[in-house]
Structures are given as C-alpha cells and as structure tokens.
Amino acid sequence: MLKFTIVLFFLCTSFSFSQSDWVLKKNKNGIRVYVREIPTSEINEFKATTILSADLEDVVALIIDGDNLHTWNYKTSDSKTVKVLSETERIIWMKNDLPWPIRNRDHVTHMKIEALSESEVKIWLLPDTSDIVPVNDDLIRIMDFKGYWLVKRMGNNLSVTHQMFGDPNGKLPTWLLNSLLTKAPYTSFSNMKKMLGTK
C-alpha cells in the first residue's frame, strides 16, 4: 500500500510542477485538445477532454479492454490484454503504426484502476518494466511514458479526460511528434464516441 501511495504521489507531482500552461489546440465536436511544454523533454504533453452521454462502467470497460483497443485508439494496429493481475490492475500491449520509413512502435502498459469515488474513476498508465512481452526486433519498444484516463459522472453525462506524455524512442523529428499530439487524441475520442454510440 505504501509503495502504491508513493507511485501515485510521484505521478501527481510530475503532472503538476514546472510545466508551462496548457494551450488549446483543437475544439471541435465537443472534444478539446490541449498541449503544453515540459521542462524535461522537447516533446510536449497533451490533455484531451470531452463530455459523453454514457454509463461510467461502459466507458471504463472500453478503456481497459486491451483486446479491442486497436479498434478505436489512434494508429493502433494491434493490441491485447497480456495479463489481468487483479480487478484493479492489468498489463496491456499495443502496437502503433508510424509513416514509412519510420519503424513502428510498441509498448507494454501497466494499468492501475483507482476508484476515487462512486462517480469517479482514474486509470493510471505506466510502463511495464518486466519482460512479460518479449521485445520484437521489427518494432521499437517505447519505455518512457506516463498518463491517465479520468472518467467522472456529472449529472446524466460523463466528463472524460485523457492526459499523456510519451517519448517514442529513436531518432524522430520533434516537429512530427508534436504535430500528432492534437490529431491522435482527437481521433481516439471521436472513435470512442462511435464505439459507445454517443455524440
């Protein structure tokens, strides 16, 4: 319990100190995407928000379903739930496609599901440091990332936030990476709405 508390404290502080202010980059179809610079990297961090008319349980189930993440998450061509550790923890693997001739990436995520209250759930996204998924020589493994999903019931609707920083590893143009930080979460949220049958 103490170890988990320390991890949560580190995550909360890493998201709250020394970063610049959020800048709104896209506001369309009820989806807002913000980006900001962080002092430790040339790659920016993004935060996307939207309001959904859906059940909290359905949204959480969609987010943690590793076997079907590839059906709605941006540029994810394959995904699977590697291992369910408990009701609140699981290991997810995802493959991300990048434009040729850039090598595709993959990453292994340790999801930690935290019920903040009966109406609010936070899903932490941390790199899994074990060797549960062997490295594929055809892919570049992403190891430096952190983020979360926050799903909160607000009356008859849900507020959904996705915040993420990730370094894709390897030599990639910073301008290219930062240009994807708006399109990627916007597309994922749009696909999520279609999956849930909501506007």
Descriptors:
199 residues, 10-stranded mixed sheet, 3 helices
Task: Characterize the structure shown.
The structure is a single chain. With about 200 residues, the protein is α+β, with helices and mostly antiparallel strands. The chain has a single domain, classed as Alpha-D-Glucose-1,6-Bisphosphate, Chain A, domain 4, CATH 3.30.530.20. Strands 1, 2, 3, 4, 5, 6, 7, 8, 9 and 10 form a ten-stranded mixed sheet that branches. A hairpin with an 8-residue loop joins strand 5 and strand 6.
Short summary of the structure?
The protein is an alpha+beta fold. The chain has helices at 2-16, 56-64, 174-196, and strands at 23-28, 31-38, 41-52, 76-86, 89-96, 105-117, 120-127, 140-141, 144-154, 157-167.
Largest sheet: 10 strands, mixed
The coarse silhouette is globular
**Alpha-carbon distance between the two ends:** 39 Å
Beta content comes to over 45%
**Tally of extended strands?**
10
| Share in helix | 10-25%
Whole-number total of structural domains: 1
Number of helices: 3
Structural class by sheet pairing and helices: alpha+beta
Please compute the radius of gyration using only Cα atoms.
16 Å
- What's the name of the CATH homologous superfamily? START domain
Q: Assign the CATH class.
A: Alpha Beta
Mean pLDDT: 89
CATH topology: Alpha-D-Glucose-1,6-Bisphosphate, Chain A, domain 4
CATH architecture: 2-Layer Sandwich
Low-confidence stretches: 1-18
Question: What is the element string, with H for helices and E for strands?
Answer: HEEEHEEEEEEEH
